[in-house]
Amino acid sequence: MPAYEVIEHTADVGIRAYGDTEWQAFENAALGMFSLITELSGVNAEIEFPVDVQADDHETLLVDWLNELLYIFESNRVLLSRFEVTELEDSHLKGRAWGEPIDKTRHELKSDIKAVTYHMLKVKKVDDRWQTAVIFDI
Predict the structure, then answer these.
(1) How do residues 36-77 score in pLDDT, each as one tens digit?
(2) Residues contacting residue 52 through CB under 8 Å, at least 6 positions apart
């Protein structure tokens, strides 16, 4: 099974991400989101960025995790290509992301993701694997 897949949605776009653990599904959701922004094979994991978010439930933690990664991308003008969740509790997520500054000679930006939405948002365990679904406002 792939780590993630793109969900076509009228004017927006989304991803469905999978993992053997919930942590891995969150990491793969981030990977899927940044694969919509650029070709990840050309992005080096040179600089580490810590992420620490709190929310009322795991669905909101997923949205906040992804929105924080978008904030890092936009405010630091970096592309992220590696993600690690180091702590995932009921209302708290800690993780790290790695990437490099955008280099227009090497990186082509494909999509402009404005925000992560709550539309069709899911975090659930299906059989023995975790699955997330999220739609992005583009």
Answers:
(1) 999 999 999 999 999 999 999 999 999 999 999 999 999 999
(2) 92, 93, 94
Strand pairing partners for 92? 54
CA distance 129 to 127: 6
Q: Is the pTM of this model over 0.90?
A: yes
**Alpha-carbon distances of 45 from 6, 48, 85, 96, rounded to whole Å:** 23, 8, 16, 11
- List, in sequence order, the alpha helices (H) in 38-135: 58-76
Two tokens at 39?
A: 């070709």
Give the type of residue at 86.
T
User: Which residues make Cβ contacts (< 8 Å) with residue 68, sequence separation at least 6?
Assistant: 51, 53
Give how many domains the chain has, as a whole number. 1
Q: Residue 122: which domain range?
A: 4-137
Q: Residue 119 belongs to a domain with what CATH number?
A: 3.55.10.10
Q: Is 75 exposed, middle or buried (0-12, 13-18, 19+ CB in 10 A)?
A: exposed
DSSP 128: T
Distance CA 88, CA 81 (A): 20
